[in-house]
Every structure is written in structure tokens, then in C-alpha cells.
């Protein structure tokens, strides 16, 4: 018997740097004037997606993970991934994330945070911070203490369609005018290095975490542009961005029809452009821009039709 795709209702997070593009680009009913994050596929305690329909309707993803392990067949004790869409209407803080070992020791057993970005939208001239120019820990500390951000931080221009892999230990920040789909470990641990001396809604400057940030930052750390493998099957072109111990991330560009078999792992799917249809057996499911769903391990042969772009990830 074919399983159904599991469609999820996202959770939205207010952020000082957020805006309204999640509503403008995806038609989401956002709850805040500064909505910065759509947690689209999430079982993290700070914001859980909820199953929209079908036999598991109303369950959080965390509850589904615990009560129906047969859908996932994973060895991870917690749902290990988190898919977000971020609206950086203003600059994000310059930050760095720990790896699993450091987070486990210093953040109450939280996972580390390795992540990656697919650039959905970027205003002309938009750029990110990726990496730094310090050649030693001493130089890193000196430049941070001096506030020599121009000397320290590496800026990279971005365009729609770009992809960036951001392993733990990477100093990074999205710049204003960028919308990304982010695939990451299921973690909410961030160490702020610099926040432009901004004040929150209560007039306070936001906390920095310099000691921990210096502890976990990789040195040296320079940006290198990557190239990616692509293959076409029927009407589907698949670009493989990254595959490692944390996640595999691909972009699927559909133009027409493709017949597919379920993989050996469950898959997280996000429609970032266009629309189409998923058919399995006698069941048909419309797919629209902004939809997020999981194909469980036991999902049988299926067919995709339409013109759409998806980001697809798995453990």
C-alpha cells in the first residue's frame, strides 16, 4: 500500500531583521510585520510543524517522528533536520554555530548546526558574509576586540540560484534583500559575533557570545566557489548540491512529467517556484509554490507533473 505524502503547516518566527516577503513571494498568512523565518519542516521544540491532513492530521512533526518511526526508519533519536525559508529584509547578525560535540557539552545536549542556503531571491547588489580573513586565533581575537569588521569579514555577492554550504565553525551572515531556503541540522544555537550595535524593541543591544564564538570558529576560513553535478531524467533535472554526514540537498527542476521511485530514505520537499501535481496510485496531490511535504520511506512509485522547482533533502 502506498503511503501518502505528509503535508506540513509551517511555523513563523518574528525577527528584528524580518519583513513581509514571505507573504509577498509565497502567499503565507504571516503573523508579524517583521516575519523573518518560516520553519517549514521542523520538529524542534522552539517551533514545530503540524501535519495538515490525512491519517496523521494535527500531529506535530515531533509526535509523528516518535509515534510512527516506520515512516522514517532513522537511527537518529530526534528528527535531525530543519527546513526554513528566511526573509532577510535587513542584515542578520554576524554569527557562527558550534559542531555537535561542542553544542552537546555547552548547550544542554543540543545538536550542532551545519546548514546550507539556496538563494531564492536577492535584490541587486545583495551580499552575504561568508568566512573571515584572520590567519590565526590571535589575529581573530585582535580584530574582534578592535571592531575591525571591514578587515575581518569576507563579503560575497549573491544572485538567485546560488547555493552556499555553511558548515559549523563558519562565520556568516545574510545581508539585507535576500530570501533563502535553508536546510540545517535541527538546532537553534547561534553565537553572535557582531550585530551592528542594533537595539531590540525594548531599546537594548542584543547579546553577543564572543567567547563561545571564538572557541568554535574555524581558522583559517576562506570562501571558495563550488560547482555542482546535474543530471536529467525525463522532464526532471536534478542538481546535487551537497551530500555529507548531516544531509543531502538537491534541486529538482521539473518541466513536464517524471516517473520516480521512492528512495531508501525519507525526503523533505519544498516547492519554491511554479506548480504541479504528484500522483501515486489512484491518488493525486496538487503542489503549489510554498508547499512543504515529506515523502516517507515506504512511499511507492510516483509521478510528478507540471512546471516547478523543488528543494529536496534527506538525512
TrEMBL record:
It is an enzyme of class 5 (isomerase). Transmembrane segments: none annotated. This is Mannose-6-phosphate isomerase. Gene3D superfamilies: Jelly Rolls. Belongs to the mannose-6-phosphate isomerase type 1 family. GO terms for molecular function: isomerase activity. The keyword Cell membrane does not apply. Its cofactor is Zn(2+). Its EC number is 5.3.1.8. Keywords: Isomerase, Metal-binding, Zinc. It holds the Pfam family PMI_typeI_cat. Residues 7-118 form the Phosphomannose isomerase type I catalytic domain. It catalyses: D-mannose 6-phosphate = D-fructose 6-phosphate. CDD domains: cupin_PMI_type_I_N_bac. Residues 238-313 form the Mannose-6-phosphate isomerase cupin domain.
